[in-house]
Here is the input.
Amino acid sequence: MLDLEKEARASYRPRRSLEHQDRKSALETDPKSDSDMDQTKEVHSSTSDSSIASQHNINISASEKCGIDGHGTTDIEAAQIVRTLSVPAEEVDNANIVDWDGPLDPANPMNWPSRVRWTHIMLVSAVNFLSGLSSSMFAPGVPALMSEFHSTNTSLGSFVVTVFVLGLAMGPIVFAPLSEIYGRMYVQHAGLIGFFVFTVACAVSSSLNMLIGFRLLQGIFGSVPLTNAGAIIADMVKQEVRGFAMAMFTLGVLLGPVVGPVSGGFLSAAKGWRWIFWVIAAATGAVSFVCFLTWRESYAPVLLAHKASLLRQQTGNLSLRSKYDNGLSARAHFKRSIGRALKILIYSPIVLTLSIYMGLIYSYFYLLFTTLTSIFEENYGFSTSIVGLAYLGVGIGFLIGQISYARLGDAILRRMTGKSGSTEMKPEYRLPLCIVGGALVPVGLFWYGWSAQGRVHWIMP
Here is the structure.
């Protein structure tokens, strides 16, 4: 206690000496004003210091017990010493916040080596390629499926293909909040396991209703890679170069549904529609094995929460917490995430407009997939194995679009940021290319609808 008292006196006396010098210089200038000032300061000091003394439960007897008053220290001075010894609560709180060890911390996913980051991006693209592959690879085998289950309902045949997309829409409602609570890696692994299981279930289905149910569940778990892909890339890649990484990921998403019917047509004709699901399951198992070995957690709040937990165990300081820790339970966080997403969708015109835009694009996309098989088989006499090649036209269009976005997206972002006179790169700066793409969609649909006739060459649709 005496050591603390000495430290307090050392920090206290210079301040008092400075105050004395200030009063002395003021007295030389205006003695009368110094008298008034001194009276005012004494009243203010006694009031504030008495308040501090009361806040810290300080009294004269306590000061005497500590030996403070024994050295000729007044009550107000004792309170000032206590105030010097007391650490502000805000500083104590900041000392318990766990953050990265500087801007170059290697544990921060933004600072991972390029090889590690691009390995993650390629794996994300690969699993999304498999998800897209599964959505449409089955399309050429629908006639054989309907024949096996003795059904002539064409609407039901189309629904077997498109119910997968319904699962893609339902999955993010659950898995997106879970990825913010438990991290990207665990949710990704759970999605891959579920996708593998229900792909096998589709292969062994014994009825049309069973197949539709398993296709829905396959789509729900297949949505996990698609839901987390953009977030994983944002965790690792800086905003100014993120466009190229997103283009590489999206390439897998879009090429999967195109390559699927091409390979599915030949496989269905040679081995039957069930082998389509067996091949997808085998590919999913192989890619999942690589992911289990190489994937690392990339979500900063989860990484810092693990770091804080480890430091609490090592130091015994139970007050340590991540800078992202808001004190919410997993259940409360889950509810807030769902509510926040709905609020953003309802109250943000940009998000609502883009959601409608993407919904229309995907609906046209899969409407095209469900009609190409029947149009080219009935109007042009294509066989089951050859009809899948008709989807290559869509794939070429996707490839051109992604290459254009990869080359122009980041350049447009930087140019618009420079024009704004600010360093902030707003997400809206990536939208100009959507205007061009949105204008070309109805042109392509009209072209496809008017040219899909037997008297027009098959290259036109």
